[in-house]
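TA notes, week 10

Several of you asked for a full example with nothing omitted. So below is the full record: structure tokens for the whole chain, then the designed sequence directly under it. When grading your own attempts, check the secondary structure regions first.
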């Protein structure tokens, strides 16, 4: 009897130590800061969705739009949601399967005709009404001549390209605006890659009629108010408010030391409908490659009308990263890639 009490007592003692130890571990586990969360999201989502082979099953010969890996499509949507989450938008964009098929046809049309157009010609190679619908209601990207498929301008590389929105035709950063539209709820996506023809590749990211979502966000800024990895701070910055008028708006910036940063406003877009009205500028600096340490920039947008406020202030907090997913190098964009 005494032996049973002794064993029972020992068991309860060990159990108590285990419980105390677990409780102590739980109490001592530090809560992640906003910076920690931003770094973790960059590693777990952005870097984890780097470009991989499409495994495209189609062909230009015979105008077969084919299909691509489901993982690729999932990664495209994950990367879209990553950018939306970073700027404070709902990150619940889903994949529209029917529109993805149309996007496959639109991507095929682009590489079959060595062109990039929102208005496919019915006399062009591999034309379909689905291709015309997707091209007319989506973002388009093409490239040729890149040495590997993973560097080509399709799938997730195209998503980051749309957010960067380089080139003389993209001063209003319309591709970025569609991806970061507050009411966006779903997207279709399709890509093609033709290794036999100088690695021609194309992507279509269709927003279409997927604008039934809702968001109470005050404004959308890119780079955003808060933390962003240095590799994703692109030369063009933008700020948008639903229904606002930016015709007389201006932007001022300061670096972390309080010094003024020279700003060149390149576009003021007062939109009727979607995507939102916005102001676009290029601050002095070499973005993203010139950022070599953690830093921050304060931004003030003034002169906004038809909006809840006339002046908006926010701070972009940049954390330096030495590794990034493959992206189209800015110096190569005009030579090898286009976004429309």
């Amino acid at each position: 009897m005494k032996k049973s009490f002794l064993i029972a007592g020992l068991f309860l003692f060990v159990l108590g130590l285990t419980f105390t130890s677990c409780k102590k571990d739980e109490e001592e586990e530090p809560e992640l800061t906003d910076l920690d969360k931003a770094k973790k999201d960059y590693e777990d989502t952005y870097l984890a969705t780097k470009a991989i082979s499409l495994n495209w099953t189609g062909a230009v010969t015979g105008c077969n739009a084919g299909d691509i890996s489901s993982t690729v499509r999932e990664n495209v949507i994950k990367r879209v949601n990553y950018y939306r989450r970073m700027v404070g938008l709902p990150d619940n964009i889903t994949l529209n399967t029917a529109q993805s098929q149309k996007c496959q046809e639109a991507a095929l049309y682009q590489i079959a005709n060595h062109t990039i157009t929102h208005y496919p010609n019915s006399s062009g190679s591999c034309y379909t009404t689905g291709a015309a619908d997707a091209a007319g209601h989506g973002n388009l990207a093409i490239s040729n001549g890149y040495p590997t498929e993973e560097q080509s301008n399709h799938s997730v590389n195209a998503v980051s390209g749309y957010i960067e929105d380089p080139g003389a035709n993209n001063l209003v950063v319309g591709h970025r605006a569609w991806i970061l539209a507050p009411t966006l709820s779903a997207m279709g996506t399709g890509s093609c890659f033709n290794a036999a023809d100088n690695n021609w590749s194309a992507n279509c990211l269709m927003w279409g009629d997927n604008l039934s979502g809702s968001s109470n966000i005050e404004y959308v800024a890119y780079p955003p108010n808060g933390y962003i990895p240095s590799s994703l701070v692109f030369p063009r910055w933008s700020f948008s408010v639903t229904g606002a008028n930016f015709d007389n708006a201006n932007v001022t910036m300061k670096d972390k030391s309080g010094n003024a940063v020279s700003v060149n406003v390149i576009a003021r877009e007062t939109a009727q409908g979607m995507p939102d009205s916005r102001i676009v500028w290029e601050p002095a600096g070499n973005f993203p490659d010139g950022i070599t340490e953690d830093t921050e920039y304060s931004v003030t947008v003034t002169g906004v009308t038809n909006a809840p406020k006339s002046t908006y202030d926010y701070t972009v907090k940049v954390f330096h990263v030495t590794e990034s997913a493959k992206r189209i190098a800015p110096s190569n964009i005009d030579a090898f890639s286009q976004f429309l």
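The two ends are 84 Å apart (CA to CA). Use that as a sanity check on your answer.
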